[in-house]
């Protein structure tokens, strides 16, 4: 029997900010290990939006499939992240569908209407809050990530809801996870002003308004949410990765803070929008063939 040694394909060399157009797993596999200092991202939420693109995350048939899909992606993120790097993960929650295959229009929030919705997860009941952020956080913890902080993103201008049997939700979670027990964290860079008007260590509740962007998809990251993550976890010139780049707000914040970005986005329309916002030339867009 003849044996042939097959070398692994060369990884993409990072020499400046770049946008990858394609599936997150395939794009991340092109990046060298230990190449980015920080990850700031917000993946699509399960069962809440249909972005109309084949291969999208968020419309998996079951909740465990959604969680497992993200765990696999973040396992590849872990390889790309430096040993002293940090992952900042924003993820929202939702309520069970009651096995309705649609979601009706809401006069106060027309974008919530959907023609397809996953069934109620096994073990949950109609109208149950699903607890998706914590399910994902614990799954990542089980996969080897260090779960270091749960930040409550309080949204003073939260979208109204047509509900009369529970409080209107006005917060989401931002989890801080690390690859190693010891990591880079510049607490001085993100101190806040306390009640006594003196600087203090940043607290775990952040009051930040939601922020829209004309032409963007349903949800955009507020730059005020991204900025402290980048300042605490990187130095000027470092690479920041967002594997769900969307309209490129993480990239915009990176440029403002003199960092370099690596964005991954599946939808070509959003890639074009992000490139326009970032003045990214065609040679800085890498299209990944599946």
Summarize the entry for a quick read.
Helices cover 22% and strands 20% of the residues. By secondary structure, the protein is of the alpha/beta class. Residues 1-8 have low confidence and may be disordered.
Write up this protein.
The chain has one domain: Vaccinia Virus protein VP39 (Rossmann fold, 3-Layer(aba) Sandwich), CATH 3.40.50.150. Helix 4 (223-233) crosses helix 5 (249-256). The relative contact order is 0.21. 22% of the residues lie in helices and 20% in strands. The chain has helices at 24-28, 63-80, 132-142, 223-233, 249-256, 268-278, and strands spanning 18-21, 36-41, 81-91, 146-154, 171-178, 192-193, 199-200, 205-207, 239-242, 260-265, 285-287. With 290 residues, the protein is an alpha/beta fold. It has 6 helices and 11 strands.
Any idea of the CATH topology? Rossmann fold
Secondary-structure element string: EHEHEHEEEEEHEHEHE
Q: Give the number of domains.
A: 1
**Lateral strand order in the biggest sheet:** 8-4-5-3-2-9-10-1-11
Number of strands: 11
Q: What structural class is derived from the secondary structure elements? A: alpha/beta
Strand content: 15-25%
| Largest sheet report | 9 strands, mixed
CATH architecture annotation name: 3-Layer(aba) Sandwich
| Model regions low in confidence, pLDDT < 50 over at least 5 residues | 1-8
Helix content, binned percent: 10-25%
CATH class value: Alpha Beta
CATH homologous superfamily heading: Vaccinia Virus protein VP39
Mean pLDDT reading: 88
Based on Cα principal axes, name the global outline: globular
């Amino acid at each position: 029997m003849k044996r042939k040694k097959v070398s692994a394909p060369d990884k993409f060399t990072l020499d400046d900010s770049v946008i990858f157009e394609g599936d997150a797993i395939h794009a991340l596999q092109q990046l060298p290990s230990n190449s980015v200092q920080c990850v700031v991202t917000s993946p699509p939420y399960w069962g809440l939006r249909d972005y109309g693109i084949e291969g999208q995350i968020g419309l998996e048939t079951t909740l465990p499939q959604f969680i497992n899909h993200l765990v696999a992606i973040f396992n590849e993120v872990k390889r790309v992240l430096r040993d002293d790097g940090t992952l900042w993960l924003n993820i929202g929650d939702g309520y069970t569908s009651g096995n309705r295959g649609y979601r009706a229009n809401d006069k106060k929030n027309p974008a919530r209407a959907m023609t397809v919705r996953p069934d109620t997860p096994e073990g949950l009941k109609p109208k149950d809050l699903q607890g998706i952020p914590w399910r994902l956080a614990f799954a990542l913890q089980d996969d080897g990530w260090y779960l270091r902080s749960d930040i409550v993103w309080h949204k003073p201008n939260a979208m109204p809801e047509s509900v009369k049997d529970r409080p209107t939700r006005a917060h989401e979670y931002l989890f801080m996870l690390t690859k190693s027990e010891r990591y880079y964290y510049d607490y001085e860079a993100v101190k806040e002003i306390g009640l006594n008007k003196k600087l203090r260590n940043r607290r775990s509740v952040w009051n930040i308004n939601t922020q829209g962007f004309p032409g963007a998809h349903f949800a955009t990251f507020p730059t005020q949410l991204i900025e402290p993550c980048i300042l605490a976890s990187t130095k000027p010139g470092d690479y920041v990765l967002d594997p769900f780049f969307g309209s490129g707000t993480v990239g915009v914040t990176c440029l403002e803070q003199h960092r370099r970005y690596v964005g991954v986005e599946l939808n070509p329309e959003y890639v074009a929008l992000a490139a326009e916002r970032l003045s990214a030339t065609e040679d800085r867009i890498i299209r990944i063939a599946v």
